[in-house]
């Protein structure tokens, strides 16, 4: 069975949110993750994703203090040949 996790994070700028994300990944072991309202730009989210060795992802930047969407997939189970990220 495939497990997909979707989370409206309401911002990942605070260290406690990053700990919560790591705990969530560890406890739920999802194959695909959808994270909304990261409130982070692509460079910040790349730092977060790089810490999760088994995940690859696609990032839509936040605009100001809102938005930001990240789609992650388990690189050991899924392969993505292309992504297309648009503002809306």
Explained architecture:
By secondary structure, the chain is α+β, with helices and mostly antiparallel strands. It has one domain (4-74). Helix content is 27%, strand content 32%. It contains 2 helices and 4 strands, in the order E-H-E-H-E-E. A hairpin with a 2-residue loop joins strand 3 (55-63) and strand 4 (66-74). The longest helix has 14 residues, at 15-28. The relative contact order is 0.21. The mean pLDDT is 86.
Structural class: alpha+beta
Order of helices and strands: EHEHEE
Q: Helical proportion? A: 25-40%
* Rounded radius of gyration (Å): 12 Å
Strand content: 25-35%
How many domains, in number, for the residues?
Answer: 1
Largest sheet entry:
4 strands, mixed
Shape: globular
Strand order of the largest sheet: 1-2-4-3
Mean pLDDT across all residues, rounded?
86
Number of strands: 4
Unreliable parts: none
Please count the helical segments.
2
Provide key terms for this protein.
alpha+beta, globular, 4 strands, four-stranded mixed beta sheet, 88 residues
Note the topology.
Blueprint: E1 4-8, H1 15-28, E2 32-36, H2 42-51, E3 55-63, E4 66-74
Parallel strand pairs: 1-2
Antiparallel strand pairs: 2-4, 3-4
